[in-house]
Amino acid sequence: MGNLFLFTGENTFLLGQELSRWVKEFREKHGEENLARRDGKAISVVELMNEISTAPFIAEKRLIVLDGLPAFTKEDLKALLAGMHPQVLLLIVDPKPDKRLAVTKEIMEQATVKEFRPLQRDAVLQWMRTYLPSLGGSADNDALSLLMDFAGEDQLVLSQELLKLTLHACGKPITRADVEELVFPSSERTVWRMMDLLGEGRGEDAVHYARTLLLRGESPHSIWNMLLWMLASLTEVVGAVESGTTAPLSIVQATGVKFGTVRALLPLARRCKSAHLQSILSQAVEADIALKTGAYRATTEGGEELETLIDRCLLAFSCPTA
């Protein structure tokens, strides 16, 4: 159907940009009075029928934008489409419609669908290079790569971080130090960043990173639990590597550890021999028992001992691994 459109897909940044372009160009060509934007989740069948059956006002087209796929039946949709004015365009915007529903399947069959998929890492890096000048900023690939390590590859999140970093840089190129100072990683990215530093043999940098997290409000208990989880996963991956299983997918199948975790841990697993890992594990288990039995003080007011244990655990990875 030529006047029914669906914008969907998890790349909400590109979706939002295309939607803004549509609305801007339509408003300029056909006027504000021929543009309506409604909540698709809340609109009733009668209300939507009134919108899409109304002819344009002294213009060629009328555009109705629905934010969210309506919870209508398949029969409701067919009745709506049959009653739509031929000069009305209906644009439904829903990044993640429930594809199990009959109405969703019907819309995807009837509509012109434009799907906005997430970009791969190299494409995101290229996009940041071209997007930064529009904000008045600049950065080298090293800083941009670190930004993705911290914030992920979601363009909407990255666009907000790039704006913040550009304002902070005040006309100067954005540096790694700027990213480390201003960008706070998500919980998952925090773990992966720690794995990367340890995998590169940068135990002191890992300690500094943990201290930075603490200064930003992360609790010592959260970081300690993260380290225990990482050690448990690392044990599985090291065991697989030493048994001759080195391909990430094969390790996933052999251990049950998630693919992203395996990929992040592999550099460290290749460096860390089982005997050395066993020593680190023994220290960590003893420390955790002591924490749970009160031998170490680790309260909100006094977490210095737990912070010291975190430092010792991270630095242990810098010891010889042979």
What does this structure look like?
The chain has 322 residues and is α/β, with parallel strands linked by helices. It has 3 domains: 4-115, Rossmann fold (3-Layer(aba) Sandwich); 121-182, Helicase, Ruva Protein, domain 3; 187-316, Zinc Finger, Delta Prime, domain 3 (Up-down Bundle), CATH 1.20.272. Helix content is 61%, strand content 8%. The longest helix has 23 residues, at 220-242. The chain is elongated. The termini are far apart. 29% of the residues are buried. The model has no long low-confidence stretch (mean pLDDT 88).
Total domains, how many?
Answer: 3
Strand percentage, roughly? 5-15%
Contiguous low-pLDDT stretches (5 residues minimum) are none
Summarize the biggest pleated sheet.
5 strands, parallel
CATH class of the largest domain: Mainly Alpha
Multimeric status of the protein: single chain
The N- and C-terminal alpha carbons lie at a distance of 67 Å
Number of strands: 5
For this structure, the CATH topology of the largest domain is: Zinc Finger, Delta Prime, domain 3
* Net shape: elongated
Q: Numbering strands along the chain, what is their spatial order in the largest sheet?
A: 2-3-4-1-5
Which class best fits the helix and strand makeup? alpha/beta
Task: Specify the helix fraction band.
Answer: 55-70%
Architecture (CATH level 2) name of the largest domain: Up-down Bundle
Q: How much is the radius of gyration in Å?
A: 27 Å
Number of helical stretches of at least 4 residues: 15
Summarize the helix and strand pattern as letters: EHEHEHEHEHHHHHHHHHHH
The mean pLDDT is 88
